[in-house]
User: Fold these one by one.
Assistant:
Number 1:
Amino acid sequence: MKIIACRAEDLGLLDAHLPSASAESHHAARFARQEAGESTYLLAWRDGLPVGHGEVRWHGCAAPEVRAAVARRIAPEAVTSGGPSVSGPTPASGCPEINGLAVAEHLRSQGIGTALIHAAEDLARARRLPAIGLGVDETNPRAAALYARLGYEALVPYVDRWSYVDRGGLRVECADACTFLVKRL
């Protein structure tokens, strides 16, 4: 297995092997954010096929309650001590978000998610960031257990709100009860 940043030529395989429920590709949107310098879209590959993904959003989680909690917990001076060692945007909080972490269902519990998380943590460390975080849906105890084993601690509950247009053209509004978890690096 290898973990690499998404390339334009990967989008077709991603849509074929890890399709999204929306009419528009989530993969294309994540790749566009990467191209704009807002994130790094990591892909896990096995036997020439994409088997998992996760996006490191350098500006952190957008939820106001998460941003406020991170600002209280991550000292601003930790962000400025030494500055980032790699060019690119750095969140004011010093805590980027791992977003959209997913592994093909038939390949879960084989270390792919862990490898993606470690790769994201390595990218944050390379930028000298003091922490990294992610949200976990309260209905996903397996993921919560994995994140706890990897050293992530609960910071704040929040509602993750997002929407998409389904393949039938209908807008679907989603609101997931989550907890934002943080790991010091």
Note: The chain is about 30% helix and 35% strand.
Number 2:
Amino acid sequence: MQVCDIMSRSVVIIGSSIAGMSAAIAAREACPQCPVTVLDEDPDMPYRRPSITSILEGTIRDISDISMYRKAIENSRINVLRGFKVIDIDPVNQVLKIAKPDGSKAKIYYDSLVLATGAEASKQNIEGVDLRGVFVFRNAKDALEINEYAKYSKKAIIVGASFVALLLTEALIRKGLKVLMVVRSRVLRKLIESQASDIIENYLRRIGVEILKGVTIKKIMGKRRVEGAILSDGRSIDSDMVIFAIGSIPRTALATKLGSRVIQGVIDVDNYMQTSVPNVYAAGDCAYSWDLITGNKVYAPTATMASTYGKVAGLNAAGKLMEAPKIIRIQYERFLDLEIISIGYTSDEARAMNLSAKCMDLTDEFKKEYSLWRANVIKLDVTMRGKDKVIGTEIIGLHNSRVFAYPFIYAITKGLKLSEILEELHYPIPSLSAKFTTWYVTT
């Protein structure tokens, strides 16, 4: 269904990460004649943000090695303007005022606008946060700065316990630094159950990481550069660097300037990813997405959500009407020799959403019943709603453990009971992988 004359429809996307580029590619496919322009103030984008740890590890020499969508940009005639910052918006006349890399100003007109502005890394507002040696870890520039500073450092404090914090820790350990993690609660608290956190924390200690739990940083010490920190319990610790990995804040300034509704710091959207302002859409880490399990809007800043809803925003912006599907959160990372997969809800997160849920540890049962799991899976937890309905799964394992996630993704997506999926796990790994990977990709 076309909602306008697509021949004259100019689509402009602000932000070129996963959501932005998914929107651009979808808009181009929906309307081959439409001008599609992507703006990003980062001069190096688009690149794979999860891959920026490779800069610290030294496995890449140039940011272009982790660039993404290169072929899509070349083949689809998408105009990507790197280093262009939007400094003002006129929503009445649908005009963006931009600053070019050389400092000059220009205007870009749009018929449809997609906000894929993402989020920015947050720091604690404490004394010493502006000293040299204090960093966040969000983009390639951050990675390059940390990499350079680490050359002259021996000890680093990482504040936070997210996937980003784990990857940072691994990279700095490989560079020979002593790492201390300051963790308010436990590692990956929102993504895995407490016993699974214990497994990750034991791995960290095994490689020499000191974990300081139940505390926060109260003050960063030093005159011009970081020399240490004072914790909330009064202890002081020496360090050359402090890196915050405590989450991010949605970038909503442009949405606010447009008059788009922002709820609890996140851009509000409807079933078509349109904001409260007509012809303005939003997706990715700046906007809400749609949760399959509750049916409600949720804030879930993950790559899966960004890709899915970026595509929906792009299609609608180009005039092809598509309702946003409801999907589940899926997160996967490799840390040391472990694979960590978190799908849907943990029992704590489910209860926080007023869902009656419990965690079932199926590790021992599955290792006994399903021989294929023995060599791969270290921990398997399933979150159950009611008697037998699966609403979440987490797997910690070794090489190729992620293939076991597909049956559970399928079960949660289809609303199946646990008993309806168990038989699939008897299949050999190649068959299991092929069957559910095909379903997942086509879905």
Note: The first strand starts at residue 11 and ends at 14.
Number 3:
Amino acid sequence: MKTIDALGLKEMRDQGEDFVLIDVREENEYQLTNIGGEFMPLSRLNDFVEQIPEDKKVVVMCRSGVRSARAIEQLERLGFENCYNLEGGILDYGKKVDKSVIQY
């Protein structure tokens, strides 16, 4: 499984790279704090698959990286090839990139 760390994601954003950021946390987590990813909870990921472009890089994130890894496994089984797991999830992003992200 391909991965990207928090600083790599920041660099992609800063450079205006064309990619999709998917947040697979549950709604209450997303409402608590988020970094602007598309809300597609793991529990309902299959409902959103058609909205994910197959021709772009896809970065998948959750709280710590575990659920996003499961989501990527699902996406890869469906034929998605350009998916990256955000190592350490939003927790790591909050520690290394954006201190305003609530740690929970």
Note: The chain has five helices and five strands.
